[in-house]
Amino acid sequence: MRISTKGHYVVQAMFELAQHYGMGPVPLKIIAGRQEISEHYLERLIAGLRKAGLVSSVRGSQGGYILARDPADIKVGDIVRVLEGPIAPVECVNNNETEHCVRSQFCITRGVWEKVRDSIEDVLDSISLADMCEQAKKEMKE
């Protein structure tokens, strides 16, 4: 499984919002500039986050985007799933699929792919935006 640029960029954008949590809305232009992401591309990506309830938009001259929840309550896995879909190295271990491969009962490799999926999910779901902000603060001190 490979995370696409949209998944990578949206985690960067959410990190930027987390760093400004509680300080008011952040204009998309600022996020795009700081993270070196195309503003137009980011605009499309942020729409998915808004629909998923992870960000809110504030209109007006002082408008922009804010996190809809505390950074400690937003996991990297939540963000990635919004834009990338289910985390699965192969289709037959996609948790959202109701129909599995006809060979799933006898497939010797299915167990391997389930372990890979579970490991990736465990990592992504163990890291919150607040954790990322704390790590960034530590790295700035070093």
Q: Would you write up a description of this structure?
A:
The protein has 6 helices and 2 strands. By secondary structure, it is mostly helical. The two termini are about 35 Å apart. Helix 1 (about 5-20) crosses helix 2 (about 30-35) and helix 1 packs across helix 6 (about 130-140). Strand 1 (about 55-60) and strand 2 form a beta hairpin.
List its traits.
mainly alpha; single chain; 6% strand; elongated; two-stranded antiparallel sheet; 142 residues; 6 helices
Largest sheet: 2 strands, antiparallel
Report the helical percentage: 40-55%
From the alpha carbons, calculate the radius of gyration and give it in angstroms.
17 Å
| N- to C-terminal distance | 33 Å
Shape: elongated
Q: Number of DSSP helices?
A: 6
Topology as a string of helices (H) and strands (E): HHHEEHHH
What is the spatial order of strands in the main beta sheet? 1-2
Structure class:
mainly alpha
Low-confidence stretches: none
